[in-house]
Specification:
Bound molecules: zinc ion
Strand order of the largest sheet: 7-8-9-10-13-14-15-16
Helix content: 40-55%
Length: 524
């Protein structure tokens, strides 16, 4: 039996050779040895295929759905299998090639690289390579809301990362984040396809009025909290926390008052009950399968005070919840697609307290949600959290896809820009944005060369950011997609432009967290 890997290694350009046999333009980094077979991915025009070149009887390569043809290489008879990038082939690939399956990342410093279109992973991997980042990537990350708005399924999100990882030959491992889960149905849908990180979002149970309620109202609300589910009483909480000095290191001390605990219990009591139940449901649902949890309380109306963070983390721990990262809502504004808006000194002071709590009560990572484009705070977060940080991005990669469109198909980009302006007021409702329609750039006044600058103008950028779902799902009268198919088409025809835009932009996110760069202290 021929030893295929060594047979190929004798040929100077094995990639081109296999490409000729398969009649595909093979992605060079996708070449993967599997026993005495070679797996690869290639494209022919816009179509992509999985290939398997083998000297083994094809029947022994289990799981893949490939069509086999006899081929010959240097006079050796081989079998070449080709098939679509189907869910079945993605599942077979994950079973056969360990690095294509997502893993738990634990407490490793990490970055979430959300990919709403499902074609950005190669660009994300190139950004990681360019910066020699030691952040471990989450390459499959989408919230239920994003999946609804992009008309994508949890399976598609997982499979897109699988194929991107093979295409680029990323053997370093990656995570998968089922983001912002709010119900058991959300958990079921994501558990069924093998996500590893489950981000639990109790936003609907947070009482945002607790910050401003008078004590009478607070006490009335506290009486009605689900104490049975919380497995405690208000008196017991007071006894546990009030007046107890908490030394959290890094010169951070907290001494909760009865008022603070009353407000924290009122604001987050139901949220904690939800989180405990969701966590226990996950434990039962996942059984022996590996998984990990992020707690996200970032999407609330008011910032998470350090004493509230302390209270939530302590109560969740008491109730048996375990997590690797937690996203408080920090001070200042984390608007979509733009830099941090607020006082950097205030952010630093706030972040330092949250970081101390996360180290003392975990350790667990502090997660930065809406982390896209927050360039001014990355150095602060990197310095104060050290390795215990998770940066979560998503929308910014969609905007880089639009940048590639602006560069390669100005007519399509102009249409999307006009459409975004028409839908911004409606679509902004569920997002933290302050862009004003009147300040958006008018595509009619921009030359083709200027078009790409629209992506860097605050108001236009935010409008493009929040209208992604409407753009991707808009339909014509005949039921066909208005932009979706054309957008994917343009990006497939110009994939190197797309990857280059992603690589450049995401590298700017990763660089401040790179270990080789020393940050001069900004204060003191
Ligand atoms: Zn979030």
């Amino acid at each position: 039996m021929a030893d295929l890997p060594s047979l190929l290694s004798r040929n100077r350009d094995a990639v081109a050779l296999v490409g000729t046999l398969a009649d595909l333009e093979v992605f060079p980094r996708s070449f993967t040895t599997l026993g005495d077979s070679i797996l690869f991915m290639g494209r022919q025009g816009r179509a992509r295929q999985l290939g398997l070149l083998t000297s083994t009887d094809s029947a022994t390569i289990s799981g893949f759905d490939l069509e086999y043809h006899p081929v010959s290489l240097d006079g050796v008879a081989l079998s070449l299998g080709l098939g679509d990038l189907s869910p079945r082939n993605a599942a077979a690939l994950r079973a056969a090639v360990a690095f294509t399956e997502s893993t738990c990342l634990g407490l490793s410093k990490s970055v979430g690289l959300g990919d709403r279109l499902g074609i950005a992973t190669p660009g994300h991997i190139r950004a990681l390579r360019r910066t020699q980042s030691n952040m471990r990537p989450i390459l499959a990350q989408q919230s239920i809301r994003e999946m609804e708005r992009t008309a994508r399924t949890p399976q598609q999100v997982i499979d897109a990362a699988t194929w991107g990882v093979l295409q680029e030959g990323w053997t370093e491992g990656y995570g998968s984040d089922a983001d912002h889960l709010k119900t058991r149905e959300d958990i079921d849908a994501c558990a069924a396809v093998g996500f590893k990180l489950y981000t639990l979002d109790p936003r609907e149970y947070v009482d945002n009025t607790a910050d401003s309620s008078d004590m009478g109202t607070l006490m009335h609300k506290i009486e009605k909290l689900p104490w049975g589910r919380l497995e405690t009483t208000f008196l017991s909480l007071l006894a546990t926390y009030v007046g107890k000095r908490q030394d959290l290191g890094a010169n951070v001390q907290l001494v909760p008052t009865d008022q603070q605990i009353a407000r924290a219990a009122c604001k987050y009591g139901r949220a904690i009950a939800f989180l405990v139940e969701a966590y226990r449901y996950l434990v039962v649902t996942l059984g022996q399968r590996p998984f990990e949890v992020e707690i996200s309380i970032d999407e609330t109306d008011t910032p998470t005070k350090p004493v509230e963070h302390l209270f939530i983390a302590s109560e969740l721990r008491r109730l048996g919840v375990r997590w690797v990262s937690l996203a408080p809502r920090y001070v200042g504004r984390f608007e979509k697609g733009v830099d941090y808006i607020g006082d950097l000194t205030a952010f630093e002071a706030d972040f330092a307290q949250h970081a101390a709590i996360a180290r003392a009560l975990g350790p667990y990572k502090l997660s930065l949600h809406s982390g896209s484009d927050k360039f001014s705070i990355y150095p602060i977060a990197a310095r104060l959290a050290g390795e215990l940080v998770h940066l979560k991005t998503a929308g910014t990669s969609y905007l880089e896809a639009l940048r590639a469109v602006a560069r390669t198909d100005s007519a399509l980009f102009r249409e999307i820009l006009a459409f975004a302006a028409a839908h911004y007021e409606q679509d902004r409702a569920s997002y933290h944005v302050s862009a004003q329609l009147a300040r958006m750039l008018n595509p009619d006044t921009l030359s083709d060369e200027q078009l790409v600058t629209a992506l860097d103008q605050f108001d236009t950028r935010q409008a493009l950011h929040v209208t992604f779902g409407t753009v991707l799902t808009a339909k014509n009268a005949d039921g066909s997609y208005r932009f979706r198919d054309q957008l994917y088409d343009v990006l497939a025809c110009n994939e190197e432009v797309h990857y280059a835009a992603l690589e450049t932009h995401l590298a700017r996110h990763l660089q401040p967290f790179a270990p080789t760069i020393g940050f001069p202290p900004t204060r003191g």
